[in-house]
Structure formats: structure tokens, C-alpha cells
Amino acid sequence: MTRNMFVDIKNVSKNLTDFSLENLNISFEKGEIIGLVGENGAGKTTLLNLISGILKPDKGQILLSSNNIGYCFDALPEPENLTIEQLNTIFTGLLAVWDSDTYFSFVDEFKLPKGKPIGVFSKGMKMQLNVSITLSHNPTLLLLDEVTAGLDPIVRRTVLNTIKEYAISSECIVIMTTHNLEDISDICNRLILLNNGSILLDDNFEDKSSKEIELIFRKTLGYGDM
Ligand SMILES: Nc1ncnc2c1ncn2[C@@H]1O[C@H](COP(=O)(O)OP(=O)(O)OP(=O)(O)O)[C@@H](O)[C@H]1O
Fold first, then answer.
1. Measured in Å, how far apart are the chain's first and last C-alpha atoms?
2. pLDDT tens by residue, 2-44
3. From CA 111, how far away is CA 134, in angstroms rounded?
4. For residue 214, what are the contacts with CB-CB under 8 A and spacing of at least 6?
5. For the chain, which residues make up each domain, given as ranges?
6. Is the dihedral of CA 52, 29, 19, 43 positive or negative?
7. Where is each ABC transporter domain found (predicted)?
8. The CATH number fitting domain 1-68+142-147+175-226, selected from 2.40.50.140, 1.10.10.60, 3.40.50.10490, 3.40.50.300
9. Most informative mutation of 17, 46, 52 for ligand 1 (most atoms within 8 A of CB)
10. Buried b vs exposed e over 54-66: b needs ≥16 C-beta within 10 Å?
């Protein structure tokens, strides 16, 4: 699949009560898997919310090549009494782009039970379902907010591999926030470090270890070596 995809953020500012993101300029292109890192409160989720349209910029504009966005929040937002099968029925009715076959292929890959209420799922199962839903409407832009937080090493690896495979086969843009620098090392090819609403570092890379990324992170933020 070849698609001409971009996200273009131009002179964007957003003021929240005690936080502001000032005059942000940045672009993303197809094939990029961007790791968005920064300390707690740096503005990572705010930036994802601006890109997705959940938040509107006070100034500037955000241009997207497509509105088919897959936004995976850090918790499963669907009602807990529903089952995987019922969710399929709902999304089939709601979304013209919903692909049931893809949905059930992810559900089967993750070995998730289709008839149980999702509220009884473990954290890892919920995140695997979250990812399955996010990838089942052929999104051209994936926004992933801390999708590996609290996952055991095996589930984390499965989730990351699934995201990477989707990113490569669909040539979409992935923007992923994480506090785990191994996630960046494992699947990303671009690192963005946000601090207090500003971009401190924007680095394209191949094959960097999480240790090397941590050193860059610490150096850029002015912390000494460990
Ligand atoms: N709706 C809102 N109204 C007011 N302030 C907000 C709102 N949403 C976020 N903020 C503030 O904006 C700042 C950035 O929050 P954000 O969630 O974007 O940070 P983050 O980098 O994702 O943090 P974390 O790593 O802890 O998840 C914080 O100070 C937060 O309190």
C-alpha cells in the first residue's frame, strides 16, 4: 500500500490552566515511528490530543493528509460490560471503515476470549484489545499513549511487534508516547523529546540501544551521567 501521508504542525500554541505549548512547528511523514518522550507533565498527551483534534489549538494549524486516525488511549475506553463480539457489532454499525476480519484476526492472535465482558480482562488483555480496536479501521495515523505501561515482558513484546508490523505493512505514521526507552529502541526510528511544552530534541536514528537513548535524554535535559 502506498499512501502519501503527512502531519504538519505549524506555529501551534495551546494554553491550558498551568501549562502552555508555544509555537510548535514539526512535521511527520509516512514510515516514521516516532517515540515521544519527556518527563511527567511535559505535554506529550496534550500534543496527541491536539493532533487527534480532541483539543483545538489556540493559534496555528495542524494539517493531516487523512482523518482516519487510530488513537490508543492509555486505558480501554469502552464500557466494561460489553464483550469482544458485542463491540464488533457496535463498531460495524458506527464506522464505515471498520474491518471485522482484521479485528477478529488480532483478537485471535492475542488469544482474547470473545464472549466474556471486557471488564474482567487483565491489564495486558485490555491493552491488547485496545490495540486490536485501534488497528481495525485501517488508520493512516496511529497515536499511542503509553500502550506498554504495566505490561509484562511477553505481552509488551507482542503488542510492540503487532504495532511495528502494522506500521510497516500500512506505511502509516506512528506517534507513540512512552516512559520505557526500550520501546523506542525496539520499534522507533525517530525520537522527540518534549520538555515543558517545547521540543528539546528531534533525532532520526537507526539501531540505538535504550542505554544510548537514555544518555541522550539525560544530556539534553541537563542531568549528569549515571
Ligand atoms: N484539560 C486540561 N486542563 C488543564 N490542564 C491540563 C489539561 N490537560 C493537561 N493539562 C496539564 O498540561 C500539562 C501537560 O499534561 P500532559 O498530560 O500533556 O503531560 P504528559 O507529558 O503526557 O505527562 P505524563 O507523562 O505524566 O502522562 C500538565 O501540567 C497537565 O496538568
1. 44
2. 457 899 999 999 999 999 999 999 999 999 999 999 999 999 9
3. 17
4. 181, 226
5. 1-68+142-147+175-226
6. positive
7. 4-221
8. 3.40.50.300
9. 46
10. ebebeebebebbb
